[in-house]
TrEMBL record, chains A, B, C, D:
It comes from Sphingobacterium puteale. Keywords: Aminotransferase, Pyridoxal phosphate, Transferase. InterPro entries: ArAA_b-elim_lyase/Thr_aldolase, PyrdxlP-dep_Trfase, PyrdxlP-dep_Trfase_major, PyrdxlP-dep_Trfase_small. Pfam families: Beta_elim_lyase. Its cofactor is pyridoxal 5'-phosphate. This is Aminotransferase class I/II-fold pyridoxal phosphate-dependent enzyme. PANTHER family: L-THREONINE ALDOLASE-RELATED, LOW SPECIFICITY L-THREONINE ALDOLASE. One of its GO terms (molecular function) is lyase activity. SUPFAM superfamilies: PLP-dependent transferases. GO terms for biological process: amino acid metabolic process.
Length: 341, 341, 341, 341
């Protein structure tokens, strides 16, 4: 059985493990005060073209989302998300557990546009009997594999600014977004057109770890208190910073993501050539092909993946995910199996 | 400069890194559903002599404390802790941030006894104008290096049971407690005489990781929801389980702690021989010697440690910590320097 | 200008004020321990045909909802509500502020049916990555004026029981529901077929006050702690209990609600006779007629009401509310004005 | 049995009831938008000599405290209180339930001085491992009957300002403080030397109600959302504003408090003349005389009061409270009984 279920089925990229070994017995201060953290932040700020950015490393995506959102909101404020957004659909009420409503809105492709946000603002106008929207949460790539263009982000950001809203981007799969064939964003443009975002390590080669970027340092004042309070401050913070240093000191992070995308696109092409369609128009490492249930059943004998959504009596959408660690031969085999069944 | 500031200045024990490398590309399910987790839990249950125990792995101590305590308490309930307890003194209001008061009480040696708890119950009797005490939180070893005897734990547990209180032990340094020269507890007796406890990995050889043990499985029902909600469920849960498997498949965990204790006791003997006293009667890897400030100043040139407490114009207590990774030669050098100054 | 905006534009029914005056200088214990509370609870239990019920009085509906829901839920649990439900639409994230998600579902008439709940359960099946539904929240009458039949409540309750769900009814306008022409429920049947509900006083003749009824006393253990903690325990609890005693010692509560309904139905008949329709099929004291905007504009000169929803270029729905205090002559005048414009 | 247990044993001052009756059927907007609220705020601003103040009315003291404190604090911030402070000792963890630690400190007389606060700041210096103190909470009169002088408040306020701390005064018994024989504060000086405070109605003649005063309006922005969210926004807000209007349109509020103090001082004099001492040096309506247990037992036959604290085998301190409603003849009788036993 080969696993196409997710992009965290393996450990870390070998270069990361090597670096952990090489630095293992070097004494460092704890709680994020290690020298590697300084280095990793310097490397990242360079790539962001934003020397003013404030950066923190934590261990996972849900943790990041609840930390950032609960830190930036006051008691009566709320966050707006696509209904498919990870904070709305997959995090066990993590945001609500910090006291804040997640206002959801239906979207076609998992992306929020100014008109979606404007509609929410109209519904949430009856102050003080409703919460006050304050953060717009987006994911890039989205939970269904689509990505934002530079123009879309810029337009959304300007809308947010003119409505006293903060724009926060969940980058659990940011590497995959930035290396997609139709991408025109960079870390620098994202740093320019969002208030806060994070760069996901866990799903792109790290053992664990996400880098939270406050593009405007004034938003980050005292954030270390929150990290400690929510149990997210690792005593051995070096584990996180060493990994980000290794991923970003050259282009490893992007190379890994590009590989995942390339393999996904190979599968996508094969799906299309067989005449099948997709639930979403993904250009990244998550694919949602709609296949005959009989074929799904056959493929299930050799491959693990999620049955994502029932379409009708004969068809269902599945989710296939590739990663930096995906075995190319298994992709080839999967395509062959798909073509032959 | 050599660092005696804490027991998390280095990475992981080499056997752990080796195991991470060896298993790195084996595909596993995420979110704690990996095979290593099953193995590690089986090994631990054996050592606990408690097949019914429910075990979860998370990444840090503050995270563990806030998870367990907020999961077990209802809205109006509170936790009792020594004033020196980690949840009261060092966790940035993590418990309060989940909605619960930490009731603190002064102790002589960082340990809670039935009479301390009884006193709290007497003060918190005016229901419903006060919170309802429900959990007794203790640490072993304590934050000041002392340990509980089997008799003390048993007596406290019986008191808790007869007062509808849950007993929860913070085991951030449990290895050091269980290998102290004056210890008579085992994992099995702790499993018998507490409701919940955790075994700390971070401060005893792991990169990160704590094992939460619910001795009574009914207390653990649905706990995985809480882990996810608080951002503590690692996508690559294998990182935690592999480490605990390696630490407990033989006696590595205890060997590492014993080494730390032994080195600390060597320093303690030297301190005593020089005629100095201690702030607390530690038999574990944290020492609080009271030294002349002039000597502290000289030692500070070559060693890092915390100045813990001012005693008077001439004396202060410092905190020295040893670990599995402490260099024996540095301990020898430190003792020599102490004797010579 | 006459106010049809809501059912809390005036003070209290004169009998309530008289009783407050008559008892004013009688010394009583505070915090709900007054003798009137005992009497009022005895009277209510009689009407509920449920001597085991546990009853508490608090001051408002949002307060009641957040108290009951946060008290009954554990950290990872959630409440299901119609999208029009008060807790979802009108309470400024009060439930989320206590840490819990409100799962909303679209309904036709503001009422939840077993199939609605079943659908939510299906969506929230991917434990532990989603919250665990635990309470089903319904309102009777609903926020759009409709009511539940005995059969509907009974069926829903049985569904809840077979799915480990608690059924909680918001009775802010329960009097209006129970005196509607198409009603077949009583306080006793509601006590039988819900786990918890409340009887609203504020919108039916009281200065302020809601009676929370735990039909199963075991659910109410320690609830007084929660009342105090959320700031809902009035020092002079007598203010609440005296009012409920007066409202329920005979049929005053129902008489007041019936009057409100009767006046609303007079308006409804007039609306229908003029050939207009309604947004919702209300049989209680809230009406949502769809009227030509020109007529709305004319009526607005003499009457206050909410423009509820735009229908098209020419039509909008307005909300008209009657109460125990509505002046019958103003209703007559309004009908005449409606007929003549 | 006559009740000296508290100052909320009766209903409201007759003038308040009269006003509620007189205004009962005048239609008003709900949720604090009534005309009486405008009038009452205007009257209060005049007395505060602070036209910029923002004022809100809510129903009780615990509610006020949790509203103000949770609204002003960010997630990692905390409030400092005397150990005897109401938020620390008598509110069932209400502040912690909103996510914030209450840092307590021992005091001699229930009052906080700059040196007390400075000591807390020193202990809470190890950021980010501890919470960040942000609000200083004081009560006037205190929970043990003492009051602050103008000089004390001014000094404390200046200390707070120079340390980025907000000063918040709990005025549950502010009337009694401002009419004490040794008082030199006014509403205007309090408005000048605190950031936020509240004027308690419940314990001084109102049925219920407290007036929250933000002396600096920028602190109050959006506070109405919080009032609604915490269930503290009464639909019939008029009940609160009418009472404050009546209490403050002339000097009724102060007259009532003065009466309570005068009666308490009569008792105090009698206690002193009998040679007994007090637990605290109260000049307001709460007295804590230390009496022989035999005398306490005899007095208990005819009077209700709390046994506050055991002193030794023969003596205990009791708490006696007088109010606007206390019967002067009962005070005379009590003094006579005390003199004769």
């Amino acid at each position: 059985m080969y696993n196409f279920k997710n992009d965290y089925s393996e450990g870390a990229h070998p270069r990361i493990l090597d670096k952990l070994i090489a630095t293992n017995l070097v004494q460092q201060l704890g709680y994020g005060e290690d020298e590697y953290a300084q280095e990793a932040k310097a490397v990242l700020k360079e790539k962001l073209s934003n020397q003013a950015a404030t950066i923190h490393f934590v261990s996972g995506g849900t943790q990041t989302n609840l930390l950032v959102i609960s830190f930036l909101l006051r008691v009566h404020e709320a966050v707006i998300s696509a209904k498919t957004g990870h904070i709305a659909a997959n995090e066990t009420g993590a945001i609500e557990a910090t006291g804040h409503k997640v206002i959801t809105t239906e979207t076609i492709d998992g992306k929020l546009r100014p008109e979606d946000v404007a509609e929410v603002l109209a519904v949430y106008a009856l102050a003080p009997h409703v919460v006050k929207p304050r953060i717009v949460y987006i994911s890039n790539s989205t939970e269904i594999g689509t990505i934002y263009s530079k123009d879309e982000i810029k337009t959304l950001y300007k809308f947010c600014q003119s409505h006293q809203l903060l724009l926060y981007m969940d980058g659990a799969r940011l590497g995959h977004a930035l290396t997609a064939e139709n991408n025109d964003l960079t870390l620098a443009t994202i740093s320019q057109y969002t208030d806060v975002f994070y760069i996901g390590g866990t799903k792109n080669g790290a053992l664990l770890g996400e880098a939270i970027i406050f593009n405007k340092p004034e938003l980050a004042t005292d954030f270390d208190y929150a990290i400690k309070q929510k149990g997210a401050m690792l005593a051995k913070g070096r584990i996180l910073s060493i990994q980000f240093l290794e991923l970003f000191k050259d282009d490893l992070y992007f190379d890994l993501a590009r590989k995942a995308n390339t393999l996904a696109m190979r599968i996508a092409t094969a799906v299309r050539e067989k005449g099948y369609t997709f639930l979403t128009q993904s250009t990244t490492n998550q694919l949602f092909p709609i296949l005959p249930k009989k074929i799904i059943e056959r493929l299930s004998a050799d491959y693990q993946f999620y049955i994502w959504k029932n379409i009708d009596a004969d068809y269902a959408a599945i989710r296939l995910i590739t990663s930096w660690a995906t075995d190319e031969e298994k992709v080839t085999a999967f395509i062959k199996d798909l073509q032959e069944v």
